[in-house]
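Researcher: Structure for this, please.
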Amino acid sequence: MLHIRRRSAPLAAAAALAALIGAQAPAAAADDAQALIANAAKTSDASFCGTKAITLGIHDGFGINGWSRASMAAVRSEAAKCPNVKQVARIGQGDLQKSIADVNGMVSEGIDALAIIPDWGKSQLPSLRAATEAGVKTVPWAADPGGQAGDYVDYLDWNEHAAGLAWGEWIAKAIKGEGNVVFLGGPAGNPVSAHELSGIVDAFRRYPKITLLTGDKDWPVTNWDASLIQQNLTALLGKYPKIDAVINDSDGFAALGVVRAYQTANKPLVPLASLEANGLACEYLKLKDANPGFQIGTISGRNWIGRVAARKAIAAAEGLTDNEPNRFDLGIYEDSIGGHAPVCDPSQGPDAFTSSGLTADELAKYGKAE
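Model: Predicted structure, token format:
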């Protein structure tokens, strides 16, 4: 549910009121979060737009894969509801220094608000803090930059630790509580993979017969790229004679690198936990009969959170307050062993994400920087 109101109290008083409301009504907040999840954060309400002409900066530190395109499209299509909002979109192309320079450049150009995926976490915090100090209403999402109150308007994301727990429990169910598992994460040290891994490790504490071969502190670096995923897993398959399941935290399209690694090694496919993607669902349906051990358990790509990030950033720049939730506990979205079978949509591309609620036209129009 979208709650927009005009700011009429000092910031400290508003913050105190928000804290009080949050303390009094956690169930209501949880209900709002579940409603947003169920509807991919879509709403016909455009009150967040306000009336003042502003410029919204949009940035993704990578911006080079299907997940990034869907996330960009979610932010930009939501902002497009507002005729008074000009958009300036940039991507970091996997380069930390470029990402920092992009943000600094957009601030110099005079943006009023910024919705950003800071893929390098705390390394990008100084540039986000500088943007805020320059008066830009900054809303990071999908990669935690750390910091403290006042560094930005709000931080939005799924609960990464809960996602790790969900993946871990699903894998334990798929391999009946016993076997060797590997975890493939994104860029080195990124906060998303780190928090997910902590959840996986906590889940596996209940299953002493499960061994996490890749360890509980680090992971083979894949940069969420299909070719690197295949390369790393091929090396692991050569090193370990028995890998019973794989957890890969990229989007499901890039996760096809897992499938290719097993096929190249001429090994039967095993249970795979990942994020969703149309391509992974289609591949599962194509290969499952010849690979009875192949199962998939996916979590929503959560690209739709970008809609909330756009609303919060624009509302803040308009002098409005958006009281929508900022954290979302996402369970397993597709479960080939638990009654929610993956659905392949041949009308969409392999890097489409059904949970995003984006049409093919929206993805083509908004899923790119200008």
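Researcher: Any notable elements?
Model: The chain has two domains: 4-156+303-323+359-366, 160-299. The longest strand covers residues 54-60.
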